[in-house]
């Protein structure tokens, strides 16, 4: 009974991902019918304008939105588990902004010396930034036990990092700065196949590790004391959780800048769809949900006011923020 | 007795926080299938001892042995298969049914992904039946009462199939029905499944009845360790808790509030337990009273000892001595009122009761002349 329900939801999520992937490739300022897209994909290459648009712009962008969206949702799920806090997420806790700051510093430094930043270097920079922010949040969480104050402190860290990033971006003098500006607002544009390859490896490896930890996560849901009594090595587990969630959000930030609300909203929506919090279901479902959600938002971001492109966070906020409000109202009712 | 006979014991264990010992040289010993209870005043460190035993606090000194092995040598999983816990920590898991919570007890036995097999599910079901929570199976854990939560956590601990069960004040949130049910389950598991139980309790009456051994935590040491008969005798309990007001009855574990001192205004002729409600009423109303004549084995005796400002008593099964009768009559003369415990007169039959009857008659005579 339950099993059928879970299978059905998974099927729906998978279909949504597939349909949105198709839509993202077909729809745009130049409309390309599905038939043509399929033939272009079948050939694998082509010299026509359409082939260029599909293969070099839309497909890598759609794939990036899917993979990064999945990673972001998973990162949010891990943070929510870690802090036992339903509105934790990489963006709201300032982790994305920390990653953004270090990436911006590295990019500006390299641009001034006319060097190109490699994907891995960007991820490393983002990871360093994410860990710095995470460190602050962890310090705060020792002092502030209340969930709301922890979130507020995270938001403040985010503001500080964003302010410094804006400062750096404003005063860096280079023509490429326009690109940097777009990125620092959050965008899936300008993703290359090389980027896609790197992010695929990083995100999928990390997600696989998370999936392998699903049993430990289920123990941790009962609180540290009980988890330890079940034989879980708490210190190691907490360290792994911090590393994996930071790595996921760092990877996203390195390629797409800070993307808001996906990390909070998607795991919550998925949790309520399944009406369970079993990690074994939640991990793959959050990933699929995040992929679908980000592709949907990116589609809107680039088509709604074409040719002007909205930043991805603008769109994700429109759909994500109401979810957070609903969660807050609900947790209030349950007296947390 | 050689230490090896004990299934669980500590040797010179010191516990505390941040390297500072709070309680030193703890020597606890318990055999398989026995129940060991820690009692002692609030803040004495019962929870600290329990948290150290379950390895949530590192020991400051000494060692804990389980089944002849130093407990620090167990891996997390090895220990989890032998020892499970019910803690005071509040648990608020999101979207988990009670059955989900109980199932987490199978954690040490399941594979990489924690998927339950048929055997696991059977054990989960049995554990839930044992503590009568089958009907809560599909209920969201957060939407149950504190008492229900506590029983779910017990089922969870039992389905971990431990040989040692550690419980920190397990009965605190339970009403009397579930207190008794909860402890009955624990007692049954101890006797039938040879489960060794280590717990802390606030209810002294229950501790006395359910425990095979009792450790009294006070100050920086285990003040006393022994069988309940040794602990609940000789006026030790008020001393352990540093009681300043009221009285504790060793035999029944019942408590009385502070007595009204002063010259007695009322004389209560009591007996057969019929006087106790009268004593309590007078205490509530703040009236100092005298009681008598009571045999020391009378049901009313403990409450009278605790509450009466003057008490005239006689050795068990003996006729009242001339002297005691004179004393009682003199007291009646001085009191402005005499109350004969309701229903007492009907109970008075036989030769031993003659003296009491006479006292009642004397009181009635006095009332008439007043």
Task: Give the arrangement of secondary structure elements.
The complex is a heterodimer of chains A (336) and B (370).
Chain A: H1 2-26, H2 34-43, H3 49-83, H4 95-112, H5 119-143, H6 147-171, H7 177-185, H8 193-212, H9 214-220, H10 224-229, H11 234-256, H12 262-274, H13 279-303, H14 312-333
Chain B: E1 8-17, E2 20-26, E3 29-30, E4 35-39, H1 46-53, E5 61-66, E6 69-70, H2 76-80, E7 83-86, H3 98-103, H4 118-130, H5 146-158, E8 164-168, H6 176-193, E9 196-200, H7 204-210, E10 213-218, E11 221-226, H8 228-231, H9 236-241, E12 247-248, E13 255-256, E14 266-269, H10 276-285, E15 289-295, H11 301-307, E16 310-314, H12 322-334, E17 337-340, H13 344-347, H14 354-369
Parallel strand pairs in B: 4-9, 4-10, 7-8, 8-9, 14-15, 14-17, 15-16
Antiparallel strand pairs in B: 1-2, 1-3, 1-5, 5-6, 10-11, 12-13
Helix pairs in contact in B: 4-5, 10-11, 12-14
* Shape, per Cα inertia axes of chain B: elongated
Task: Supply the number of structural domains of chain A.
Answer: 1
User: Termini of chain B, distance in Å?
Assistant: 69 Å
Count up the helices of chain B. 14
Within CATH, the superfamily of chain A carries the name ABC transporter involved in vitamin B12 uptake, BtuC
How many strands of chain B? 17
* Tally of DSSP β-strands of chain A: 0
Principal-axis shape of chain A equals: globular
Structural class of chain B: alpha/beta
CATH C-level class of chain A is Mainly Alpha
By DSSP (H or I, 4+ residues per run), the number of helices of chain A equals 14
Mean pLDDT over all positions of chain A: 87
Give the C-alpha Rg of chain B.
27 Å
CATH topology of chain A: ABC transporter involved in vitamin B12 uptake, BtuC
